[in-house]
Each structure stands twice: as structure tokens, then as C-alpha cells.
Design goal:
Oligomer: single chain
Radius of gyration: 21 Å
CATH superfamily of the largest domain: Fumarylacetoacetase-like, C-terminal domain
Largest sheet: 8 strands, mixed
CATH class of the largest domain: Alpha Beta
CATH architecture of the largest domain: Alpha-Beta Complex
Distance between the termini: 60 Å
Bound molecules: manganese (II) ion
């Protein structure tokens, strides 16, 4: 018998790791009880309110102690757009439709919304040069992603079957995988992203739980004709039937000049989180398929989520064609990549007919200048 006290005790720690580790049945009991207490007209509402804090006065912290952070590349439109910039004839590599591509990221530099984004310095190869320089990144970029908070983990050596992957997902957030494209271009071969991505990752600090998101699940878009089916260990009919999420994502920019002139933030992109080639369950199953253990509070990034058209491109790399076509802003400014003083806000909203929509809060970062080198 699950009691609400078990879940309350788990939720009362300084981080939510213990709560994330609970079976979803315990989180559901807590959720139901909180809903009863806070409902309009609830008998204990007045007393409960004495325990609430006004949101504007609260500083949000990271919800969990993040043991490990892994970033995937499951946004196929982003992968194709970026691939086309570098390999016009061969945008998607042959492994893409078989393997959920990812890399092991850095958990120490994941921070909550509002943490300033200090422009990183590093090695880059200036155009036309044949030796690198060390200095401030000139091509600082965003990546619009969903973050996945892992709930119950798995033991080392014990894979997670696709049919039981969902209960390992405790909730979702927004994630901005800040990326220094010039550092990335120079360093990424042959082993993949390193310093270009480990200087900061920003998350929206609210964990929107799997239970709260249940009404917003939708079918995974069918693979285009001619695409190979996923290998059997990644295939589940029920996952395909409801493994995607109807979450609208948005990116806004506000430059220093725009704020000075009281101009509202400018929308750069809007699109659906259903634009992923792999479901979140497939990412979890693939991650553990070789025996790697996941732990409560681990964080997965989906990879940049872009739309098939140009209305919802989740990075400047795509928005500006690798910096070649700067975008025009209402202030009269242009941007190829981010400049100091720019503020980027990601927002998300789960929407479904007949249900109250759920916001994800903000995932905000303000770019500050590099340290003098
Ligand atoms: Mn990323």
C-alpha cells in the first residue's frame, strides 16, 4: 500500500532525487493529494496557503543532483539541416536511422534558468587559417531541446526493455545546450563534442512529471516510406502509439538594444516536440542496451528539435545557414550568432483538446562577455 507519507518524505529532501526514484504510483498519490489540498474550495485550502510562497519571490534551484548528463541527436530535421551545411550530398549519415546518436555530456555545468552564460574561450581555426588561435568564441549558439529526468534506474549490466522504458522517465523540462560552433568545428573530429558544449547547459527548473504529461502523449510520427524500421530492441507498438509528446516549443531573443528601446522579445522559432525521430523511451532503452546503468536524477537531452520547414529552427546554425544569412531583428540589428547582452528564452506548453495546458516555465540565459584572455 502506497501512502502519501512515503512520497512526502521523498519530496522533502534538499533535492528531488529520492522523489524521482519513487515508483510512479507514489508520485501519483502525492500529486492527487496536492491537487485535493489546493483545489478551489478545498476545506483546508486556507491553512495550506500559509505554507505557500509567492513564485516571483522564489529562486529556483536545480531540481536534482545530476549524476550523469547525456545529450542525444534525435531531432532529425536538425540533424539533416546541419548535415546539409557540411555534407550537401550526404546530409544524414547511414547510421542515423538505426542508432539513436548521442554523446556523454557534462553534468557539473548544468544550471537552472537565469544563470548567466559566460561566452566561452577556446581553440578555433579562423577562416582561411591553417593554425588555431585561442580566444572568445565568435559563433555562440543555442540548441532548443527537451530534457528528460530519469526516475528509477537500472542495475549495471541490466538493459531496460523498450516495453518497460516509460516508467524510468520521471518528468521533462526544457534544455538549452549552449554550443560554441567555432570551437566545435575544430575539436569534434574524431571523438565528438567536448569543450564546445561543456561550458554550460541551462534547464528550466520545474520537473513536469510524466503523470502530468499523460494526456499530452501522442503517436510517434510514422517513418517516411523507405526508412528502415527500428531494430527489434527499439520497437514497441504501444510506444509507437503514444511515445511522442504534444508540446509546443518556442525560442525568443531579446538584445540589449531591444530592452533599452522597450521592444518586446522577438520570436525566433516555434514548433512541436513531436518532431523527434526517436521516442524518449527509445532513447532510454538504447542508452541502457549495452548494460549502462541510469540513476535517478540523471538528465538526458533529446537533441535540437527543429521543424521540417523554417518556422521552428532550434539553432542559429540553421536559422542563419551557418552564419551566412544573418537574421533581421525588429531593432534593426542583425544576428548571425549570439552577441554579448543577448537574452534567449525557451518556453514550452503541453496542449491537448479538452485538457488544461501545462507550461514548462522559462529556460533563460543572458550572454555575458568572455573573460579577458
Ligand atoms: Mn545538443
Amino acid at each position: 500500500m502506497v501512502t502519501v507519507r512515503d512520497a512526502v518524505n521523498a519530496a522533502a529532501d534538499r533535492t528531488l532525487n529520492a522523489l524521482l526514484a519513487c515508483p510512479s504510483s507514489e508520485r501519483r498519490v502525492l500529486r492527487r493529494r496536492l491537487s485535493e489540498l489546493l483545489k478551489v474550495g478545498a476545506p483546508d485550502r486556507a491553512e495550506v496557503e500559509t505554507w505557500l510562497y509567492p513564485a516571483p519571490g522564489c529562486a529556483m534551484h536545480l531540481p536534482a543532483r545530476i549524476g550523469d548528463y547525456t545529450d542525444f541527436y534525435a531531432g532529425i530535421h536538425h540533424a539533416r539541416n546541419v548535415g546539409a551545411l557540411f555534407r550537401p550530398d550526404n546530409a544524414l549519415l547511414p547510421n542515423y536511422k538505426y542508432v539513436p546518436i548521442g554523446y556523454h555530456g557534462r553534468s557539473s555545468s548544468v544550471r537552472p534558468s537565469g544563470t548567466p552564460v559566460r561566452r566561452p574561450s577556446g581553440q578555433r581555426l579562423p577562416p582561411g587559417a591553417d593554425t588555431p588561435v585561442f580566444g572568445a568564441s565568435q559563433r555562440l549558439d543555442i540548441e532548443l531541446e527537451l530534457g528528460v529526468w530519469i526516475g528509477q534506474g537500472n542495475d549495471l549490466g541490466e538493459p531496460i526493455p523498450i516495453t518497460s522504458a516509460d516508467p524510468h522517465i520521471a518528468g521533462l523540462c526544457l534544455l538549452n545546450d549552449w554550443s560554441a560552433r567555432d570551437l566545435q568545428a575544430w575539436e569534434y573530429q574524431p571523438l565528438g563534442p567536448f569543450l564546445a558544449k561543456n561550458f554550460l547547459t541551462t534547464v528550466s527548473p520545474w520537473v513536469v512529471t510524466a503523470e502530468a504529461l499523460a494526456p499530452f502523449r501522442t503517436s510517434q510520427p510514422a517513418r517516411p516510406a523507405g526508412d528502415p524500421p527500428p531494430l527489434p530492441y527499439l520497437w514497441s507498438e504501444s510506444d509507437q502509439a503514444c511515445g511522442a509528446y504534444a508540446i509546443d516549443l518556442e525560442v525568443q531573443i531579446s538584445t540589449e538594444a531591444m530592452r533599452r528601446d522597450s521592444l518586446p522579445p522577438h520570436r525566433l522559432a516555434v514548433g512541436s516536440a513531436a518532431n523527434l525521430y526517436w521516442t524518449l523511451a527509445q532513447l532510454v532503452t538504447h542508452h541502457a542496451s549495452g548494460g549502462c546503468n541510469l540513476n535517478p536524477g540523471d538528465l538526458l537531452g533529446t537533441g535540437t528539435i527543429s521543424t521540417p520547414d523554417d518556422t521552428g529552427l532550434g539553432s542559429f546554425l540553421e536559422l542563419t545557414q551557418g552564419g551566412q544569412q544573418p537574421i533581421a531583428l525588429p531593432s534593426g540589428e542583425t544576428r548571425a550568432f549570439l552577441q554579448d547582452g543577448d537574452a534567449i528564452t525557451l518556453t514550452g506548453r503541453a496542449v491537448a483538446n479538452g485538457y488544461v495546458s501545462i507550461g514548462f516555465g522559462e529556460c533563460l540565459g543572458l550572454i555575458t562577455s568572455a573573460l579577458a584572455s
